[in-house]
Specification:
- This protein is of the alpha+beta class.
- 25% of the residues lie in helices and 23% in strands.
- The protein folds into 2 domains: 60 residues, Roll (Structural Genomics Hypothetical 15.5 Kd Protein In mrcA-pckA Intergenic Region, Chain A), CATH 3.10.290; 234 residues, Pseudouridine synthase (2-Layer Sandwich), CATH 3.30.2350.
- Strands 5, 6, 7, 8, 9, 10, 13, 14, 15 and 16 form a 10-stranded mixed sheet that branches.
- A hairpin with an 8-residue loop joins strand 11 and strand 12.
- It is globular and about 65 Å long.
- The N and C termini lie far apart (76 Å).
Length: 360
């Protein structure tokens, strides 16, 4: 705890969460009762305005946290959070999801249809199953939509959680998604730069493009990996920001909704010919600096419905793992070409100078 006022910036992966959950993620030593007291006395503020624990925060907002109050002396340690009693089948299930683990991190391959966290009418979720992975219980670092599958990072201790959280907030973490979309984009390697906001009247459950003052910046790069005629395309998606439903809204906005995404594509989001109606969006890879040094780099295999559709459309997953831009090998001819361009430009400049002197 500190005796000075602190200001924090909300990161992309915290966009849309409740303020009390933000404290639980980033300042776990601050109790809910203390957060509530700060709110009642007007000391807790978001973008300068008074806030309550139930308010939802948006990426880029600033949170003013008042000085912490000294904790009363305790004669004994507080009781640890009670562990969830899981059945042997539940433990076996969550253990089968693990694709990478070490002393600071666990990466799981989240199946489609399993929510990351609980909520209204959502009792079965990954967060509930985490006691089956390790003791102490690992912490969620980011989220995936319920119907999105793929690589999800967990931190095994508070130090790792804080480290990973800073990486996501500073956007040094890289996430690579695969998706199948309806139709084929005209531009094979493009950037969608469209601000997003919560769609009014949906209770925050749906986003839309908002180019007015209420829109928050959102940028997604896409690359067409393969195509099935004009029927569908397999694309790689690289989000540069982390807005809610960003990839789904952006692809629908350019006229190519993700296959199975009825929320944003409507009836046009489905393919005929026995193609699964489940959403075809998969977090294929996550790469992030590791708190113990080096990098964590994990790849998640496709769920069965996605793999079956790939086979039906004639796509080969082996063709899809493109290197990230900073992984491309250096071009040995780049320096030579640069020197030739410089020499050419200088020759043109000298010719211009000679013509100028002749006219004088």
């Amino acid at each position: 705890m500190t005796d000075a006022v602190r200001t924090f910036s909300v990161g992309p992966d915290d966009d849309g969460i409740r303020l009390d959950r933000w404290f639980k993620r980033h300042l776990p030593d601050v109790s809910f009762n203390l957060v509530s007291r700060w709110a009642r006395t007007g000391q807790l503020r978001v973008d300068g305005a008074r806030a309550t624990p139930g308010d939802r925060v948006a990426s880029g907002q600033s949170i003013r946290v008042p000085p912490a109050e000294p904790a009363p002396a305790q004669t004994s340690r507080p009781a640890p959070r009670p562990r969830v009693e899981l059945s042997p089948d539940e433990v076996a299930f969550v253990r089968e999801l693990v694709i990478r683990e070490d002393r600071s991190a666990i990466v799981v391959n989240k199946p489609p249809g399993l929510a990351t966290q609980g909520g209204t009418k959502t009792d079965q979720h990954l967060d509930r199953l985490l006691d089956g992975l390790s003791d102490p219980r690992p912490k969620l670092v980011h989220r995936l939509d319920k119907d999105t599958s793929g690589a999800l990072l967990l931190a095994r201790n508070a130090r790792a959680a804080a480290y990973f959280g800073k990486s996501f907030a500073s956007r040094t973490a890289r996430k690579v998604y695969w998706a199948l979309v309806v139709g084929v984009p005209d531009v094979e390697d493009g950037l969608v730069d469209l601000p997003l906001a919560k769609q009014p009247g949906t209770g925050g459950e749906k986003m839309h493009v908002e180019e007015g003052e209420g829109g928050l910046p959102a940028r997604t790069r896409y690359r067409v990996l393969d195509r099935a005629g004009n029927r569908a395309a397999w694309v790689q998606l690289l989000p540069f920001t982390g807005r809610t439903h960003q990839l789904r809204v952006h692809m629908a906005a350019i006229g190519h909704p993700i296959v199975g995404d009825a929320k944003y594509g409507g009836s046009e989001a489905f393919l005929t010919g026995g193609v699964s109606r489940k959403m075809h969006l998969h977090a294929r890879r996550i790469r992030i600096d590791h708190p113990d040094g080096g990098r964590l780099d994990a790849t998640a295999e496709l769920p069965s419905h996605f793999a079956e559709t790939m086979a039906t459309l004639g796509f080969d997953p082996a063709d899809g793992d493109l290197p990230l831009d900073d992984e491309l090998p250096p071009d040995p001819d780049a320096e030579r070409r640069r020197a030739l361009h410089v020499a050419r430009d200088r020759r043109r400049e000298r010719k211009g100078e000679r013509r100028g002197r002749g006219r004088g």
